[in-house]
């Protein structure tokens, strides 16, 4: 790979002059610039981004740490973040922790070694070591969709409790009284808040609260949990799923048992990922603009990078119930 010294030798001028042309640090005459650019083209020289960042003390990159990149929610979130960052001259380094707390901490170290200008985190779960590492960061930090005890940072988050309340209230208003909840991994703050919203709606209606099923935020986990719930005479007439991926698994389990949705079983999800609109039946879900959530997070992080003294901002986004075909009144 060609170096800046190779370019200088090919152009027949000094290393320092080539550096001025490449980095724009000093005016250079047009004939000299032409020689340097010709040599660069001939040799295929690529300037070192690391070296530039050391001089400028900025890399033009931000880190993004997510728990599961295969979940369409995080894919759509990353797209919103990347779109905003790219429009503003920044690149995004994406790290996927696979819902692994230890991997999450390792990737944090990797990102910091890359000298990122800022970091956006959607954490796996509350973890003391990870929270301590984030609390000691010297780079701007943005938390998305969940908070961490002991970490003071900008945060943008959907009102999870309110969203789950809306979903459960919708099923109650349709006339359902045996409503199950497949919440997701119980150790996460997101699931705890959504479970609280589910319980609040049932308590207000004086309806029995069933145990919240604990599972991963995946379709196979939702499928397995729904198989248990639907196997028996006391099966629920409605299921609130902690996210749309779980809801997909519920729909599959219902189909395997010839349980008609929504005639025999209503299903409501959470997130409104794009695929939820194209299922059959299309999924009723608690909606949020995931891409806009990402854009909001990226915009705030870039503002903090440019103005380090900004006070931490906590933004809570109001969710919306998106009515589609997977929910209806129960059979009499």
Question: What would a concise description of this structure say?
Answer:
By secondary structure, the chain is an alpha/beta fold.
Proportion of helical residues:
40-55%
End-to-end span in angstroms? 75 Å
CATH class of the largest domain: Alpha Beta
Q: Let me know the CATH homologous superfamily of the largest domain.
A: Response regulator
Class computed from helices, strands and strand pairing:
alpha/beta
Per the CATH scheme, the topology name of the largest domain is Rossmann fold
Number of strands: 12
What's the number of helices? 12
What general form does the structure show?
Answer: elongated
Q: Give the H and E element order.
A: HHHHEHEHEHEEHEHEHEHEEHEE
Q: How many structurally independent domains?
A: 3
CATH architecture of the largest domain: 3-Layer(aba) Sandwich
Strand order of the largest sheet: 2-1-3-4-5-11
User: What value does the Rg take, in angstroms?
Assistant: 25 Å
Please report which band the strand proportion falls in: under 5%, 5-15%, 15-25%, 25-35%, 35-45% or over 45%: 15-25%
